[in-house]
Amino acid sequence: MAYPGYGGYGGPMPGMQNQGIPPQGMAGGPMGGPMGQMGGHPSQGGYAQYGGGYPATYGAPPPAANDPMWGYFTSIAGQDGEIDAEELQRCLTQTGISGSYTPFSLETCRIMIAMLDRDFTGKMGFNEFKELFTALNGWKQNFMMFDQDRSGTVEPHEMSQSLNSMGFRVSPQALNVIIKRYSKGGRVYFDDYVACCVKLRALTDNFRRRDSMQQGAVTFQYDDFILCTMAI
Q: Of the candidates 11, 42, 166, 194, which lies 20 to 30 Å from 3 by C-alpha distance?
């Protein structure tokens, strides 16, 4: 069902596959080439299906030697096969995912990890890294559609259009808060844009998992609410 007034919480999100199937590759190659159609409208029946879970890494077979992302990841990851926020920042800088935009800040890398960190280790495995990279490609293409002058920024009204194109239907009051939180000098920079997308996706996912009746309303215990919000 569509929630009253806003059309639903979150449409298909870049990087998330139906039924929780991990992504099988990224259109355009590892350096952030063009992606396919993004955004769209929420599916009939409530939340769009953008992934029912994150793939586990424990006991999984080693990635194919010709996987380009494996080289980036293993050059940074420690013996535990995972990376923390500082390592993720270096890894993403090496991949060139930011293109001509400013590389991601350490704080943005922290919330990227938190978005996929179901066991609260503060680290990310290879499968989660690939899933993140696919999402980043999608968000980058979405950002570039509105950053037509390649200034590395979008205006507040373009931010609103961008969120709508990804299926988010938030109230004008919520949108105003989002824009004030993530804009600098009246414009939203790429790093802040990605941070906003990460937080929206993570919080929507947390809410959706608890909204089993798809009614747009859930009941949180205080500690659960703190856990969901402070981790991002």
A: 194
Tell me: the pLDDT tens digits for 131-146?
999 999 999 999 999 8
3-state secondary structure the chain: CCCCCCCCECCCCCCCCHHHCCCCCCCCCCCCCCCCCCCCCCCCCCCCCCCCCCCCCCCCCCCCCCCHHHHHHHCCCCCCCCECHHHHHHHHHHHCCCCCCCCCCHHHHHHHHHHHCCCCCCCECHHHHHHHHHHHHHHHHHHHHHCCCCCCEECHHHHHHHHHHCCECCCHHHHHHHHHHHCECCEEEHHHHHHHHHHHHHHHHHHHHHCCCCCCCCCCCHHHHHHHHHCC
Cα of first residue to Cα of last residue in the chain, in angstroms, is 27
- Global pTM value: 0.72
Token pair listed for 88: 């993720």
What gap in Å lies between CA 18 and CA 7, rounded to an integer? 20
pLDDT given for residue 60 in this prediction: 53
